[in-house]
Design goal:
This protein is α/β, with parallel strands linked by helices and 365 residues long. 42% of the residues lie in helices and 18% in strands. The strands form 2 sheets. It has a 6-stranded mixed β-sheet with strand order 3-2-1-4-6-5, sandwiched between helices.
Length: 365
């Protein structure tokens, strides 16, 4: 079974075709400066490898779809219902579904939703203290970046050969932290929407909802205007004044003397550090911390800042290891009671496996 996995960014489309179950990469590519997803998807080259299924790393479709599903009208309706909770993501993927239906008629499309890995969270971590009517409408904590956290959990178990109490830190333009016990998600920072949790590049993370109501009343802003600001104008970009909120640009600005950029980086590292400590308490201990994502895997300075002050938990970085090396590697000191790792994630492989497990029994009949 050949699985096409597109990764749809705000301005780019990356893709690869995997042969399953061998997991051999048959083709890959990247299309930049995307303004029309229909045109971009039509450019995906599949001449050298037929496509049996398209699998999308979809974001949000509410409580009925916290898993992997063949896309039908029920899936589409649920994605539309929860569009406001994941406005950027769902809008892109709804457009992509239509584009793939036109470009590859007859090829099944599978949506693998980000909350799938977090379905194991216990109720005391999953529920909000809201009226029951809200919960009936699906207002609970879902968690996102599930494919990445699942890959890290499986990779860490493979590397260490141990049952772990693990904190997985997916840090990038969009960031979240997940508490994992024996390979199962038990808590995570993102909640009802990908807007919540840590500061993101252009999204503010956790924010007192009454601040939103206050600003709407004061300025007369519409829901669409608030959504625009909180999606594109907040987070590290909003705090630092550095357009786009890319940590590499923030680090350069901070090195050049920008106090807002330096403060944004300090705030971000503090949030991660605080979360590691909180999740260690929730799990009753800590065996390992893994950093992944564009920031987590590649920024030695952020890893160091996130771990600074956590020596009381048994976390000791080896600064030389942390500052050098590549690939999956330990960056903790030899005597550290808690091991610390930099790991490359592979979300595409996780969702390809999910799609294969879903469709292989059907194909065998």
């Amino acid at each position: 079974m050949n699985v096409l996995i597109p990764n749809l960014g705000s301005t780019s489309v990356k893709y690869q075709i995997l042969e399953m179950p061998s997991e051999k990469v048959l083709a890959k590519g990247r299309i930049e400066r995307v303004t029309d997803y229909r045109e971009a998807i039509a450019q995906i080259r599949t001449e050298d490898a037929r496509v049996d299924v398209v699998v999308l790393k979809a974001a949000h479709a509410g409580p009925a779809y916290r898993g992997t599903f063949v896309v039908d009208e029920g899936v589409i309706a649920a994605m539309r219902q929860f569009r406001l909770a994941a406005a950027l993501h769902n809008t892109i993927y709804l457009s992509a579904i239509e584009a793939f239906r036109q470009a590859m008629p007859g090829v099944p499309i599978v949506a693998s939703f980000e909350p799938q890995f977090h379905a194991t969270m216990p109720d005391h971590a999953r529920l909000y203290g809201v009226p029951d009517e809200w919960r009936k409408e699906g207002v609970v904590r879902y968690g996102f970046h599930g494919a990445s956290h699942q890959f890290i959990a499986e990779r860490m178990a493979e590397i260490t050969g141990r049952r772990l109490r693990l904190v997985s830190c997916h840090l990038g333009g969009s960031s979240s932290v997940c508490a994992v016990v024996d390979g199962r998600s038990v808590d995570t920072t993102m909640g009802f929407s990908p807007q919540s949790g840590l500061e993101n590049a252009t999204r503010p993370g956790d924010l007192d909802i009454f601040a939103v109501l206050y600003m709407m009343e004061r300025r007369g802003w519409s829901i669409d205007e608030v959504q625009r600001q909180l999606t594109n104008g907040g987070g590290l970009a909003g705090m630092s004044g550095v357009e786009g909120g890319d940590v590499r640009d923030l680090e350069a600005a901070a090195a050049a003397g920008s106090r807002p950029a330096a403060l944004a980086l300090q705030l971000f590292a503090y949030q991660v550090k605080k979360t590691i400590g909180a999740f260690a308490a929730g799990m009753g201990g800590l065996d390992a911390v893994a950093f992944t994502g564009g920031i987590g895997e590649n920024s030695a300075s952020l890893r160091s800042a996130c771990c600074d002050g956590l020596q009381f938990l048994g976390i000791e970085l080896d600064e030389a290891k942390n500052a050098s090396g590549s690939g999956d590697r330990a960056v903790s000191a030899a005597g550290s009671r808690v091991s610390v790792w930099a790991i490359a994630t592979n979300e595409e492989l996780v969702i390809a496996r999910r799609a294969f497990r879903l469709l292989a029994p059907v194909a065998a009949r």
